[in-house]
Amino acid sequence: MPSSVIASYEYDAAKSVLTITFTTGRIYAYEDVPHAAYEAFRFARSKGRYFNEHIRDLYRPTELTEKPPRHEAQVLPFKRRDEL
Question: For the whole model, what pTM was predicted?
C-alpha cells in the first residue's frame, strides 16, 4: 500500500542508515537504525505511522535534501510612469 507521506526509502545495512524520501521532496538519513527496525518498517502496513512511532524520535536524522541556490534579488532603478 503506498504511503501518503513517504515516497521511497532505502537501507544501508553496512552502515545501519535508513534513508527516507518524503512526499514533500525532503530526504533524511536516520543513523544507527537496527536491521530489525528497518525490516519492521519495511513490512509495516502504514509506513507513516510506523515511522512516527518507531523511527522519527528515536534515531538521529541528517537532512540530505539539496537546497536550491540562493539568488540575490535584483534591485531595479525606480522610474516614474512618464519616464517609461
Answer: 0.76
Q: What is the dihedral of CA 46, 49, 65, 62, to 10 degrees?
A: -130
Strands (E), the chain: 6-12, 17-22, 27-30, 61-63
Question: HSE of 48 in the Cβ direction (CA atoms, 13 Å)?
Answer: 9
Nearest-angstrom CA–CA distance, 65 and 14:
22
Question: What sign has the CA pseudo-torsion 73, 76, 78, 79?
Answer: negative
CB 22 within 8 A of CB 6: yes
Q: Which cell is 45 given?
A: 502496513
3-state secondary structure of 50: helix
Summarised one tens digit per residue, pLDDT across range 1-50 is: 568 899 999 999 999 999 999 999 999 999 999 999 999 999 999 999 99
Closest CA to 63 of 24, 19, 11, 32: 19
